[in-house]
Design goal:
homodimer, 605 residues, alpha+beta, eight-stranded mixed beta sheet, two-stranded antiparallel ribbon
């Protein structure tokens, strides 16, 4: 099936809903981009996704990256497409917003969403290169930047992020990889094994720039003791030219359920004691603490939003395919006539469910990017600070709710197709397989739920979280009773009060150190926050749609789009958001059956 | 990882919970099986699954059935294992309960559950052969039985069911395959194309006996006009010996997301006008109506329960793997100590969730089989009738709720493992892929939701459905206030009243022909019925556990098992069942956003 994407919704978000101007008016962008550029960027980007990128998606699935005699070979076409994207400004050079050519995130990410939908594996290659480049842009010396960035941005080199080790997964602080000083204070020897390195190898570029967490001799235990090092596959001389092969060896690639176009590698650093890396940031302080993980996490926060975003992009693409199939497939009768299946109530329900979820989550995601843009670029320091905090709160919601929901949406899209959806004739079975990793990498769902209840709720004495809640409360107060959305605002208001109740319960649990309960109900609390946020975004969008509709006649070609926007909000508020009441009652009752259950009766042996 | 299964729960169901004796005391079984046989049958069956069947599961996934030059070749080992199962009494000869050696369903299915968990693709081969044999047992002439059954039961031949066609999926009545009378009134010529024929070919037997729906010349339109024919791949002479190749050609096999060990075939019947089939049942009546679909559905009803059962078996196996991994994987710290991840609250939550769902759904499934056993074998005709109706009500719940939940449980099991769960090192990614088809075949989830609200709620003037509700109500009345389960019975009682409310709403909608609403809320109504039923089963099991615990000391080796049973019921009643309140409120509010949404705004184009 041809690649189709919901470009209309992206345009609505950027041009009709978000205060995009606030970003474009920042000094950084004011001479570079205007609202008028958006249509062209999106239209061109969509064309590249349709014509250049989407064709290699299935190729990568059927011809996965393979490992033979120490060499990883990417699927046919991956090298060319990667370089096409990077060279033509659709990739890292636009994504790294601090660079001269960098775009505001809200604009670039609307293109990247389509790339991730068109070929998730290729999306990973781009995103990791951008991520590694961003770390160097933010924390590298001027020399580092000159040495590495030009070719990382041109498509000649790619980048990776190395955190996980065989015995250090969710707990990064247990990493065993070591770094040893050399005569050059910036250069360390690296020794250790990293695994699950996405796009860790694959011969699509002449060089790979690994960013590697490792513990220097004076580094303390735990994650605080980790430093961060630039470890190129081929050494890079100070003038940027290639030196000899560094001692980095790919020892295996994973055989995975999906995302097969991108090689997930196990890498050995310093097997022959000849692996060198360049330190980023400062050496450890007197307590043995480094900023390695913090530097990587700064990049990762954006990339966590990015993970939820990729997931939603894949779900959105699956929804697009399902909606087209539902128009074409004739099956069953209504009033004696054979009909396309979109006429059947349950098929419409599934399409509406996918539309509401993907558009609602997309709205939340772009709120996240908008806040990151303001945080990075606003001249108003208070506003920037508040936006950074807001993005930090939204990050776990987007990552976890976005990725978990995407799996369900992919299942639902397959259900629309029925049996053929389970076959490789349609892209849905690949999309379902590809998307499942997104609930795991960049931190599992529970890691993010913990991040929410242990960090984000409590950072800055809890004020940023309360401020986020307050904004939702004000939104309700100002708009409740809006004609046509009365019931929906009542639901949102009730859901908001549920959220407030759960927040109070968490305050109480924190005060009383109820660690078990904090963990037990974390994920469900994240769902409550996410659903309230998504419903509030969809209602905001509905208000914008109502305003526009007031100026359009009902036969305007775009009138239905706005009706669809309002239907999304109503559907979500009435069919999904009530889940908040349910979860709140469950948390309120604080069932302890899990703790009462003897551990050995949880184990099937 | 080694195959592990929750045999203890199966033994509990058969020996400590269900009134198994009522089945064993039926004339049909009373001299053949006793409660004392159950342990041995399960222990031996488990051994066969572990040692013989489970090793080929991954083999089939990595070496799928392939189609080359018109020949389908099954994965290595499949032929041998199929024949081993069939020859040694673990397959069709035991599953066809009307045969001399047939077991009660509740006993055989407890073994089959482990087979389906050990290798779902092999499970399909067995089940389809049993299903085809069962149709012949129930509807074939004595000659048909002599001609086909011996070798179908011995492992020499296999069986298939042929319903779907390219333009007739969910709507079987649109089938285009035709049958033409010959000089022999029992023999018809068959012409047409069938698709999605599971185990439709694969060279694991010397012959394949297809049961094919086709429309005779005098057959009316729609599903009522379809006849059912025995169409062997090689003709079978009246003495049971093999004749020449019948004109049945495999033209393709599907490339699927999972269940790759079993070939899903497209079959052409009568390309050269030389395909013959033997009619089952009578020719069409004067209105052109045949009993073809009804005969197949009689078999399919059991096989729909079987589909939910397979799904739950796969979920249960995934849960077993996740529970073992959670004990072995060391990650993170609690009070300064590195711990296996089972100590982390969210991992325990996931294990508890999988335990409660799989044990609860298993309980509902075995209620279904128990009722089928009584329906088929009780001398008390009223009781048999009531049991048949009860099984008919439970069938859509088991099929739909069982299969949809299994996908979620497989996702959850993978989540326990994290990144490694996404790789082929562990069986979970295969299990997730394998299980997804079960929400689609044997009728999609929506087909079953419609079956519930349009047929099962209303059959027999609605009395059987009310009788099912009444039994749950009585169970609550008798047991509410049980010490230790007070809150759980309150929840069940509230959920029951929700169910009653939704039932009334449906009566009203039926009366007022609100077809759109009937369809729109069907799936959610099925979830309400399922959750009430599962909670009630788990609470019944808890009462049995409480009774046993009263006689055991707390240090008895099996004490924890019973505590686990009670924890399951409490977890489900307090964490899952409240979903019923939520769904009921949604149905009560009857949101119409889906109908208000313009169709073209549901389509991404």
């Amino acid at each position: 099936m041809e690649f189709k994407y919901n470009v209309r919704d992206l345009k609505f978000i950027l041009k009709e809903w978000l205060p995009t101007k606030e970003v474009l008016e920042c000094d950084r962008f004011k001479d570079l981009y205007s609202l008028e550029d958006i249509d062209q960027i999106l239209t061109e980007g969509y064309k590249v996704c349709r014509e250049v990128i989407s064709p290699i998606n299935v190729v990568g699935d059927r011809n996965p990256a393979v490992f033979n005699n120490g060499v990883v070979t990417s699927p046919p076409g991956y090298k060319e497409v990667f370089q096409f994207i990077q060279k033509n400004g659709w990739g890292s050079s636009s994504e790294c917003s601090k660079l001269e050519g960098g775009m505001p995130l809200i604009i670039y990410k609307s293109v990247f969403e389509m790339i991730a939908a068109a070929c998730p594996a290729m999306g990973s290659n781009i995103k990791l290169t951008s991520g590694a480049a961003n770390v160097i842009i933010n924390f590298g010396s001027e020399d580092d930047k000159k040495r590495f960035l030009p070719k990382m941005l041109s498509g000649e080199w790619q980048g990776t992020m190395n955190l996980t080790e065989p015995s250090a997964g969710s707990d990064v602080g247990d990493a065993l990889t070591k770094s040893y000083p050399t005569d050059d204070p910036k250069v360390y020897k690296i020794k250790g094994t990293k695994m699950f390195i996405t796009a860790g190898d694959g011969s699509i570029c002449e060089n790979t720039i690994h960013l590697v967490l490792a513990r220097p001799p004076q580094g303390c235990q735990g994650s605080a003791g980790l430093g961060l090092y630039i470890v190129p596959k081929f050494w890079v001389n100070e003038d940027g030219s290639l030196g000899k092969l560094n001692d980095v060896t790919t020892v295996a690639v994973e055989h995975k359920m999906g995302l097969k176009g991108s090689a997930t590698c196990m890498l050995n650093y310093g097997e022959n004691d000849e692996c060198f890396g360049i330190m980023l940031g400062a050496p450890p302080d007197e307590k043995g603490r480094s900023q390695g993980l913090a530097m990587m996490f700064r990049m990762m926060n954006e990339s966590r939003i990015g993970t939820g975003h990729n997931a939603n992009a894949q779900a959105s693409s699956a929804y697009a395919q399902a909606s087209l199939y539902a128009c074409q497939r004739i099956q069953g009768y209504i009033k004696g006539e054979r009909v396309p299946i979109i006429k059947h109530p349950d098929v419409r329900r599934m399409l509406m469910d996918m539309k509401a979820h993907t558009e609602g989550i997309r709205a939340m995601i772009f709120k996240g990017y908008f806040n990151l843009d303001i945080a990075e670029n606003s001249a108003d320091k208070d506003k920037a600070q508040k936006s950074a905090e807001r993005a930090a709160i939204l990050t776990p919601l987007i990552k976890c709710y976005g990725s978990e929901t995407a799996v369900l949406m992919n299942c639902e899209a397959m259900q629309v197709l029925g049996g053929v959806g389970y076959t490789q004739e349609f892209p849905l079975e690949q999309s379902l397989r590809d998307s499942k990793i997104l609930t795991i990498w960049e931190g599992t769902s529970f890691i993010h739920a913990q991040d929410l209840v242990k960090r984000k709720m409590r950072m800055g004495d809890g004020k940023p979280f309360l401020s986020w809640m307050k904004d939702i409360e004000s939104f309700i107060t100002v708009n409740e009773g809006t004609a046509g959305l009365e019931r929906e605002f009542i639901n949102l208001s009730q859901a908001y009060h549920c959220l407030a109740e759960v927040k109070n319960l968490y305050d109480f649990w924190h005060l009383n150190k109820k660690d078990e309960l904090i963990g037990l109900y974390a994920l469900r609390t994240l769902y409550i926050c996410s659903m309230v946020m998504v419903a509030s975004c969809l209602l905001e969008q509905s208000l914008a749609a109502q305003r526009t509709m007031a100026e359009l006649s009902a036969d305007h070609y775009d009138f239905n789009f706005y009706q669809g926007k309002i239907a999304c909000a109503k559907y979500y508020a009435n069919n999904i958001l009530p889940g908040v009441f349910n979860l709140t009652e469950i948390i309120r009752n604080t069932d302890l059956s899990i703790q009462e259950c003897p551990e050995d009766s949880l184990i099937v042996n």
